[in-house]
Specification:
Shape: globular
Radius of gyration: 19 Å
CATH topology of the largest domain: Rossmann fold
Strand order of the largest sheet: 5-4-3-2-1-10-11-12
Strand content: 15-25%
CATH architecture of the largest domain: 3-Layer(aba) Sandwich
Order of helices and strands: EHEHEEEHHEEHEEHEHEHEH
Oligomer: single chain
Bound molecules: magnesium ion
Number of strands: 12
Structural class: alpha/beta
Helix content: 25-40%
Number of domains: 2
């Protein structure tokens, strides 16, 4: 391997903001790896741009070369400190929505009276976000939403999650191609990186798509059991079990959580790269 496109999720993958502890030198070593000229760094996150910048400042992260934000709906290139939206990715997503603007998509959803818009800072050019009461049958509604949009020529995905602390359902409506996996594959193709020159790191449900894909990937050790079981089963079913490493700790005395897990993935697929970060601490 002469170069590496290293794509990582942020919350509870690179950011040590879960209940488990972070090995003291893990992030320093990660920064040393990211500083290597052979390494291109991408952050892949549900966060929007401002929250990514906040994470970089708060956790003293290296500035990435690319940011896939808003769950895959935005691709940003960072060049000399300037963040630029990748228009090719926008064009790809616009195709899914057959040129419909967000407000038009919103109008097409008018009949779903239980959908209440989330605040403006959670909306994006290719992301409509709503609250949904917990009493609604979310699965049936998501299928209805996708059907309704398909009838107007849009390829859209509706994603449901629950905001447990606030006791409310959350619905995101995105172009069908807007996912972490599609965005990473698009970026790799644009840059001409082959699968064996890539590594993805993640910890949770919205990382499973990439964890089970042909892209070499690592699940950090702090991931919960349900995600670990699901990642192993899905990568096995997809025939990509060899492309998934589950971090367990032990590399350079680190515990495999967060950045240490990412480094463990690098070491697993590219042992020669251990020298790029081993001495940093
Ligand atoms: Mg995460």
């Amino acid at each position: 391997m002469s170069r590496l496109l290293l794509c990582t999720d942020l919350d509870r993958t690179l950011l040590p903001n879960g209940p488990q502890s972070e090995s003291p030198d893990a992030r320093l070593r990660f920064a040393a790896l990211a500083a290597r000229p052979e390494v291109m760094l991408g952050f892949v996150t549900g966060r929007h741009r401002e929250l990514v910048e906040q994470a970089i400042a708060n956790y003293r992260l290296p500035v990435p070369d690319y940011v896939i934000a808003d769950v895959g709906t935005t691709l940003l290139r960072v060049e000399d400190g300037a963040w630029r939206v990748d228009d090719a990715w926008r064009g790809r997503l616009a195709l899914d929505w057959s040129g419909h603007a967000r407000d038009e998509v919103r109008r097409l959803l008018g009949e779903f009276a239980d959908l209440r818009p989330q605040p403006a800072d959670r909306q994006g050019e290719f992301k409509l976000s709503f609250f949904l009461p917990l009493y609604r049958d979310a699965d049936a509604m998501l299928a209805d939403i996708e059907r309704q949009l398909a009838a107007s020529g849009l390829a859209a995905r509706a994603i449901y999650s629950v905001d447990e602390p606030n006791g409310i359902g959350l619905v995101d409506i995105l172009p069908a191609s807007a996912s972490k996996r599609h965005a990473i594959e698009f970026l790799a193709a644009e840059l001409g990186f082959a699968a064996d020159e890539m590594l993805f790191a993640g910890d949770s449900g919205n990382d499973l798509d990439v964890l089970a894909s042909p892209v070499p990937a690592v699940l950090v050790a702090n991931a919960n059991d349900a995600v670990r079981i699901s990642a192993l089963a899905r990568s096995e079913d997809a025939g990509h079990r060899a492309q998934l490493h589950v971090a367990s700790g032990g590399l350079l005395g680190m515990n495999g959580n967060y950045a240490a897990g990412i480094l463990e993935g690098v070491a697993h697929f590219h042992p020669e790269a251990i020298a790029w970060f081993a001495k940093a601490a």
